Amino acid sequence: MKRLTVSLVAILALSAAPAFPGAQVASPGGKLASAATLTALAPEEAWDSEPIFATAPPGDRRVFVVERGTPADGAAIRVVKNGVLDPTPFLSIDNVNLESERGLLSMAFAPDYAASGLFYVFYVADGPDQLDPGGDVYDIRVVEYRRSDTNPDRADPGSARMVLAQPHSPEYHYGGWLGFGPDGYLYVTIGDDFNRYNAPLLGNLFGKVLRIDPADPDGAGPATRAIPADNPFVSTPGARGEIYTRGLRNPYRASFTPGGDLTVADVGESHVEEVNVGHLAGRNMGWPECEGRCQVPVPAYTDPFYTYSHLDGCAVIGGYVIRDPDLTGLTGRYLYGDACRQDLRTLNLSITGGDPAASGLEIQAFEGLRSFGEDSLGCSYVMTSVNAYRITAGAAAPAGCPHEFPVADPPEPPMAPVDSTGPDLLLTGKGGRLRNRVSFFAVCSEDCRIQAGGNLRVRRRGRHKAFRCRFRPASRSGSANERVKLVLRLKPRSLSRARKASRNGRRLRASLFAAATDPAGNSGSAGLGLKIRRHRFRSEQGNQG
Fold this sequence. Notes:
single chain; mainly beta; Neuraminidase; Immunoglobulin-like; 2 domains; six-stranded antiparallel beta sheet; five-stranded antiparallel beta sheet; 3 helices; 4% helix; disordered N terminus
């Protein structure tokens, strides 16, 4: 078995702090009444590289699993038929860059796939080739392929047609999701190109959700697509007509609910992870002015549906609303995860605050969560660094989905709305020399328990790589509107490393975050950035709601 060693925690959460074991402050709620388990689609050694996405054509019993790729063999799409993995790939793709968070990341089948045989893939190119002689390494590509005329379990590799080629820097934040909406158009998520200031701008495609008609509109072939006439910025001077939603940092995964709402899980930077839900056409989700909810409401920005702090994770991985009627307790709830956690969690998207609860599902400690998926029969899937799994109603259930067509939309979860309004939290700090600790103050709007953490980040310079040192977490209780002092400490080795970097002219930044939980279990979070210059902390605006 060929296995990549790159960790998704490192690639998705480059600028996010690692989770603290056992921290649950942002996800109140108990375990759901579910006996669900994860049933492997194949032995681990059957995969050539990390399974990173799963989907299916409309009305088709097969499951297609995307493998991110290996340097030796490139990337591939595999077919699982009647619960059995086909050893021969449906499609192999060469010239895929696999550094950092790159690779073959997702695919989507055209709504009329049964007749047209068309499907689309999202990957990062490793340089120019016959498909795009003028391209460059790290280009984002959305490419159309066609099913083989002779074998429905194979694609025609010679049918490749470029739909979208977007140059990208050799850094991070590629996004990586494709999906057709209920309107029949293709939605594409692209990250901010590791430049936060791209996200709100209408003149580029970075930090956006795109909405396009990928079919070749004029028969011209390469890099052609149509822009729907009702896209929100199609008539805005200077705007890219493909843009559907903006103000996102790294929307690695998205999906559509059974009711047609778009869900976008946006990976945060220093403080907060967020899940956005709804009709997001024309919306500005606020990045980089706000990470998570804005501390002071801004009418031009749309707050996320749900957030959690970096005390409870480091990089959100969005999933799907569970449609499988066999998964009692989970059906109708949105399943998602985090790159720094083994457990999978759920939200009720029909009520304010999401009524967060644990799913009772966990991946093994030696595996890393990569993605989720769903098929056309209503079954749900989990991809990790070593295998692909179907979520089954019990350990004895088969790997193949047992359902028939059609699958009814799931009912809304039978849960009463809860008071999910968390306490307001304000963080303030003042200057001080670089020492083994940093102190700051928190004010909570009601009686609460405050948990705080953070990391000291050293910027990249020349050939020197970026790195970060984690502060030891701290917690304190406080009364309403009480000014509570929090002290975070560095280990001696981390302090020595940071001082050396500072003497060498490297820029340092302390990213601090806190989560407050009231007696009812509701949570609020905030963040604070501190720049370090010449061995002194200088406060930087960074509070988030």
